[in-house]
Amino acid sequence: QSPFLAAGVPGNTTNFNYEGINDQDTYCFFIRARQAGTGLSSNSNTTCLTPSVVQAVRNLLMENANYTAAGTLEWQWSWNVAADLESAAIEAATMPDGSFEEVAVFPVTLPLSQTNTLLSVDLPELPDYYRIRTVDSCARVAISNGVRPPRLQGFGSDDGLNNLFWAAYANDSATVVSYEVYRTSSTGETLLATLSGTGQEYSETADFSGPEPGVSCYFVVAFAEVRLHDGSTKMVRSRSNTICVEQTPKVFIPNVFAPEGINRVFEPLLQFGATAAEYEMVIYDRWGGQVFISNDLSLGWDGDKNGRPMPQGVYVYFIRLKQTSGTVIEKTGSVYLMR
User: Fold this and answer.
1) Among residues 35, 32, 40, which one has the least CA distance to residue 16?
2) Phi, psi of 271 (to 5 degrees)
3) Which of 92, 66, 177, 87 lies closest to 138 in space, CA to CA?
4) Do domains 54-148 and 150-247 have the same CATH topology?
5) Could you tell me which residue, 1 or 43, shows the higher pLDDT?
6) What angle do CA 104, 107, 113 make, to 5 degrees?
7) What is the dihedral of CA 100, 103, 109, 113, to 10 degrees?
8) Dihedral-angle region of residue 139 (phi above 0 means left; psi in -120 to 50 means alpha; beta otherwise)
9) Using one digit for the tens of pLDDT, what is the confidence trace for 116-159?
10) Cβ contact 272:249 at 8 Å
């Protein structure tokens, strides 16, 4: 290429900065000095340089965050592959404008890939907001957009329904197209419903026929269209956390029993054959003395104390059971022992 004038500077100048260079291009420079008043000129020696320019991180985009079926958390992101990265990390916060903390640091491997995936086995109970933070060779920091998978919660109601509701999939660079609601069990996953991108709740009648009557587990999947920096779009699939909804059983307690009659054992009856993670039943006489205690839901009181029949009369019971969901049910009252 023929020489061209890069700049004119005063005669007493001894340095010059040339801007707009490209990484790994070769540039050659010489200085031409002109004598004032005569027009005489003299050229210096020529020197050539091939600069190495630190490429900043550009087009940094957190594309998706997703809970996997294997029980891991998956992040997907993209960036410019020419960036001179020193370090990169995943950061998390409970709120989009909250304080982000580092949750995963990963090694920078060259050459960079355009699209990247990282898995973590550390799953919070409810999804957080996630973003990428990078540092380049010039210590410049770049931070991506934040993304949060759908945040699913639910409860069982007295009318026998399992009610699900979720905070929407969050991604400033994406639009949610639809949601799918699934029930999951040891036998597989069942698609229950497909909802619009604005849907955020779903209810179904509780299942009392399974191995754990009244207990069902669910997750939600968001389908979203992500806008990439080059103007194109791509579809992503973000699975929520999985929750289990447990119906609170009604507890039926008799007010009289007769060890020599038909109803021979005093014990609570739980609706739909529910079980308890923890259980305690204590029986007291009218003076407050402990007569009987059981930690087995199938072991009731037969009216005896240490093998000796207790006299007819009124006795006080205290029953406490804790479901696998953590729900605690407590009942107190009196029962009449008939002889």
Assistant:
1) 32
2) -60, 145
3) 87
4) yes
5) 43
6) 105
7) -60
8) left
9) 888 876 777 778 999 999 998 888 999 999 999 999 999 998 88
10) yes
Q: Are 276 and 297 in contact (CB under 8 A)?
A: yes
The model carries a pTM of 0.70
**In the CATH hierarchy, which top-level class contains the domain 150-247?**
mainly beta
CA dihedral for 114, 115, 121, 125, sign (positive or negative): positive
**And the tokens for 262?**
């038909």
What residues contact residue 183 under an 8 Å CB cut-off, 6+ apart? Answer: 189, 190, 192, 204, 216, 217, 218
In CATH, the architecture of 251-337 is Sandwich (2.60)
Rounded CA gap, 276 and 154, in Å?
A: 20
Other Cβ atoms less than 10 A from the Cβ of 241: the count is 20
322, 338 in Cβ contact below 8 A?
Answer: no
Bridge partner residues of 309 (DSSP) = 304
The string of pLDDT tens digits covering residues 91-111 is 999 999 889 999 888 878 877
Separation CA 315–CA 257 (nearest Å): 11
Give the three-class secondary structure for 318.
strand
State which amino acid sits at residue 220.
V
Q: Give which of 180, 197, 198 is closest to 189, Cα–Cα.
A: 180
Q: What are the residues whose beta carbons fall under 8 Å from the beta carbon of 143, sequence distance 6 or more?
A: 60, 131, 132, 133, 134
Domain ranges of the chain: 1-53, 54-148, 150-247, 251-337
Q: Does the pLDDT of residue 197 top 90, yes or no?
A: yes
Task: Please name every residue paired with 61 in a beta bridge, in sequence order, or none if there are none.
Answer: 78
- Write phi, then psi, for 300 (nearest 5 degrees): -95, 180
Q: Can you read off the two tokens belonging to residue 212?
A: 């754990």
Domain 54-148: which topology? Immunoglobulin-like (2.60.40)
Give me Rg for the CA atoms of the chain: 36
Q: Residue 181 is encoded by which pair of tokens? A: 């609601």
Token pair for 217: 């587990």
Token code pair at residue 7? 């700049």
| In the block, residue with structure tokens 């920078």 | 108
Q: Give the count of beta carbons closer than 10 Å to the beta carbon of residue 43.
A: 10
Task: Quickly tell me which residue has 């380049």 as its tokens.
Answer: 136
Supply 236's token pair.
């992503």
